[in-house]
Each structure stands twice: as structure tokens, then as C-alpha cells.
Amino acid sequence: MEKQADIPGKSVRIPETVSLSKKKTGVSIYQKLGALIVFLLKSPSFDHLASHCADVAPITASEFYKRQHALAETLHSLGASAYVAEPGANAHFFTNVSSSRWHLSERPFLLVIAPEVLSDNEVKPRISVITPRFEATRAHLLSIPAKENVSFFEWDEDSSPYLTAISALGTNGEKIYVDGDIRKFIADGLADVLLENEVLSAPLEVKSLRERKSDSEIEILRCANEVTLLAIRSVRKEMYIGMRESEAQSLVIEALASAGLADPFVLGLFGENAALPHGSGTDRALGKEDLILFDCGGTLHEYHSDITRTFALKDSRIPTKHLEVWFTVHAAQTAALASARNGTLTSAVDKAARTVITEAGYGSYFTHRLGHGLGLEEHEGPYLRGGSADTILTGHVFTDEPGVYIEGEVGVRLEDSFYVSAEHNGESVLLTERVGGQAVSPWLI
Q1: Which structural domain range is residue 177 located in?
Q2: Domain end call among 210, 243, 265
Q3: How many CA atoms lie within 13 A of 239 on its CB side?
Q4: Of 92, 276, 303, 328, which one is least surrounded by beta carbons within 10 A?
């Protein structure tokens, strides 16, 4: 016979044959069972996060068509006959083929978009795939969204993939643009066979096509960042003085995965370890005087979240100087957000945050740019940095992440992402606005 211990959501069977005597073996078994029950009772669950983004749809086929058409028109206006990319962020943007769907190898797998001019001077995109022949069936299964059939050009292992590419690219003496992230050996291979063409890195006009986000992209980014912030808050409730960095990091990864985010990551640093902006930590235990820094995120439909919180626990006793640093960083983040609007130089937004920190006496400890673009890449252009001549436009999405890092003592960074909204007269709107937005204090994040 067995007895059952009732634990919410779990059942633990306790054998009746275990003696209740004080024999050493019996006590040892009960001690182990007791420890297991305590562990199961205390094991946190983050299942409540799973529903937050469940109804957020991926990018539709019709939106991919618009992107392809915009690229074709841009190529035609620049006098280019084709654009070539490997699986990655840009290929995903135009053809839904990311490096997670097709991993890069030494064998070239290329996506080609070429402008085709019709009799009425309308420009339409023509999409082709250059694939190893033995991978052709898998390539067809990618189901690339396109209004017309995608052409597949297969190359054998004993032949040149670049000569095969000529059929898709043409040799009419015009420019061929390659994606800025394409590997050098592939760009060189194309240049070696396309003797009548200029093989050039794609210019700003092409790169900028994915900088300004659509409403659908904003909605995906919004939900991904919301649920990342909710995950941080949920993990904070499970933390305690004495917990190790690795234990906290494991909880964050679990929470992000429970929230439905792919490729979750976390930088979790306690106390003085946070003074290294991208430090790896020492797996130290959390002390009462320590601030905690989590920089974490993941992807939703390939779009990234990126949130940083520096915070304390209810039992923490944070030194006054460290609190002063925290509120200085918070004021800098707020100033930057207020200055970021349509038509503003990105350098001016960086300056707004830097001025606050400098005037507080911590300028030399703010050692990195203010922020970066966010989308299909965690770090993408444009960037919020000094010296930049880039202009903020509606649809841009940025991180706003000032920090102060005093090595050997304390590190504070606060990071929220915002988009520049046409509906709000070109002002910036936090992606996490619906779940509370910015932190208020180290105890209210």
C-alpha cells in the first residue's frame, strides 16, 4: 500500500513499508522524501506567462509581398539587377528565411531578388533560390512567400554554385548588390564569375527598408518586450538573499521559455559584478547590500526583446551612494526618452542622457552608447550614439539604456525599448507601456 502526499499539481507516492521507527535507514528515507516535498512545493512556476503573447500573429504573406515589391522598386531606381543574401535577418525580412530555418555552412545557399520591369513600366520582384542539389527538396519546403513561383537553381557538388547563380542574376552589365552580412568568400565567388557586373555591398537605401517597423512588427516587438519585463518581475519574487548568480540566471531562462520566447538569454550579475557591462559574473551569492542586474530577452516570431533592470529585494539594504547612482541613471533614461522624437538626431538623444549623468558627477562611468535599433536583430541600426548624423523617423525602434559602472563597487543599467509613433505626433512610446513601462525605483520595477 502507498500513501499519497497532496502537492498542488503534483503527486508524491510514499511507500507504507517505510518504518516510522528511529532506525537510521528509516529516518534517512523520510529526510530525503521531506526534502523532495519541500523542493516541489517551492519550485516556482512561470506558466502564467504563457498566454501573454499566445495570440500575437507572425508576419503575414501579404506583408512579405509589400517588402519584396519595395525592394524591387529600390533596386530598379538604383540601376541594380539583383540583390543577393544568405539566410539571416535581411533574408528573413524579405523571404522569411532566417539562419534558424536554414543554418549557414560552407555550401552556398543564396536568395536572390531581382526587379523585373513589365510592359507598363511596373516593377515586380522575381525571387530565386540557389541551392545545393541534394538539398533541393528541403529548399522547396521553406515555402517562401511570393506572389509568383519561386525559381530554384540547383548546383552539384562537382560544379560551381557561382556559375549556377549567373542564371538567376543575369549578366547585363548592371550592379549586383550583396547583403551587408554576406560572407566574404561568397561575395568573392560571385565577383569572380560576374565579370560584366559590379558586385557591391547593398547601400543605405536597401538597408533602411527594414529600419522603420510596420504596425505588425511593432505589435510583435511590443509583446515580446512586455513578457520579458513580466518574466523579470516574476523571477524577482522568487529571489532571496544568499541566492547565487547561476541560480537566478536559471530562473530567468525558465521564465522566458515559459513565456514562449525562443532563444532566451540572460546576463545576471550581483553587486560589483554589474560594473562590467557585459561581464560573466563570478557566481557569487547575493548580499543584502547588493543590487541585482538582469539584462535579458528572447525572440517572438524572430523579433527580439531586450530589457535590463537593476533592482533590489524587499530585504535588501542598499547603500545611499548606490541608490544615488540608480536614480541618476533613471533620470538619464527619462531625459533621453523625452528627447527622442521624429526628426531628432540620434546623437542628440545620446547627449540628453549623457548630460544628466555628467552633471551628477558620473560622466566618466557612462562608458557606452545610449542604445541601438531593435528588430530581427538584437542590435541593429540606427544607433543612439554620439557623433551620429542619423535622423530618427517614425517607425524606428530603439533601446534606451544608460548606465553607470564604478568598477569594484556598483553597476547600474536600465533598459527599455521604444518606438517613434506617427499616431502620437512623432513622439516616442515605450514598448512596455501597457505593463507599466519604466522602473520607478529599485523596489518597483
Answers
A1: 61-210
A2: 210
A3: 34
A4: 276
